[in-house]
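Hello forum,

I keep getting stuck at the same step: I have a sequence, I want structure tokens, and every attempt I make locally crashes halfway through. Rather than fight my setup again tonight, could one of you with a working pipeline run this one for me? It's a single chain of 184 residues.
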Amino acid sequence: MDDDELVSAVAGGDDGALRELFSRHAPWLAARLRTVLPAADVEDVLQETFVGVWRGAAGYRSGGAGGWLWGIARRQAALWLRRRGHPERLVTALVAAGELQPVDPTEAALSRAELAAAVEALGPEGSPQRETWRLMYVEDRPVAEVAELMGVPEGTVKSRAYQIRRLMRAALRRHDPMLERGGR
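Reply #2:
Ran it on my machine without issues. Output:
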């Protein structure tokens, strides 16, 4: 069975298919989670990830099981950090989550500094754009939930998300001459 068929079987209640997905994907998910979490927490977040797979399998759209699994794992890691009182580690986790291999410590520090500067471009902490960024991109909450939490229409959240992407792109461009010239 391929991954899409396994997820479909999980949606039908097949716990053997869930075990097979776990055996195929847990090792690489654990390796990526170790880049954003303390090693002692990885197993717990991995378990929560596969509980999320079990619950969300019916909503899976075929064609990208690995990305779908990583999305669940990333959300679980963000929730774990938030529940453990480590929200300051979420930005670092976002930077690290995109890395597939170890990075030079200097490069990692520069990336964190550039991301922090881009976040500052969104305005002061607690501002609507900064809060929208935190909820959508750090905590990975859906538009409808962000709208409800902020007490605004979904269209407002979508508009803010567009502005946030534009502002952050411009702020990051100031730090990367290749982006300024249209490279990448």
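Residues 3-87 form a domain with the Rna Polymerase Sigma Factor; Chain: A fold (CATH 1.10.1740.10). If your local run keeps crashing, start a new thread with the error log.
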